[in-house]
Amino acid sequence: MFGENCEYLAMTPPDADTVGRDVLTVLRRVCRRPVEPAANSTLAADLGFDSLQTLEFMAELEDRFGIIVPIDQVPRIQTVGEAVNCVRSLLAENGHP
Fold first, then answer.
1. What are phi and psi of 14, to 5 degrees?
2. How many C-beta neighbours within 10 Å does residue 95 have?
3. What integer pLDDT is reported at residue 17 of this predicted model?
4. Sign of the CA dihedral 25, 9, 86, 2?
5. Long-range Cβ contact pairs of 40-44 (< 8 A, separation 24 or more)
6. Residue 75 gets which letter from DSSP?
7. Residues near 16 by Cβ (< 8 Å), separated by ≥ 6?
8. Max alpha carbon distance in the chain (Å)?
9. Would the pTM count as exceeding 0.85?
10. Per-residue pLDDT of the chain (97 residues; tens, 9 = 90+)
């Protein structure tokens, strides 16, 4: 259901650096152009994401980490750092520190 990257559910919980690195990997793949985002980079203004790309990014994060991003949280995720924090928070809610 969550794709091939469900290893986060079965293995040792990822540390903060791993989560951040993996979020950036997903972001670069979805972006379709070379970017070097920082934590304060905005998805729309700095990276040029439209609403469809933002939803694609969230779906990829869900697959990668085995989480579900509530649809009402998606509009609140404006920066790369907020995306990382969202993933960390959802992993913690699912029992991963």
1. -70, 145
2. 8
3. 82
4. positive
5. 40/79, 40/80, 40/81, 41/79, 41/80, 42/78, 42/79, 43/77, 43/78, 43/79, 43/80, 43/83, 44/78
6. G
7. 88
8. 36
9. no
10. 334 444 444 444 566 689 999 999 999 999 988 889 999 999 999 999 999 999 999 999 999 999 999 999 999 999 999 999 999 999 999 887 6
* 4, two tokens: 């091939």
User: Around 97, how many Cα atoms within 13 Å sit in the side-chain half-sphere?
Assistant: 2
Report residue 29 CA to chain centroid gap: 11
pLDDT of residue 14: 63
The first and second tokens of residue 80, run together, are 């790369």
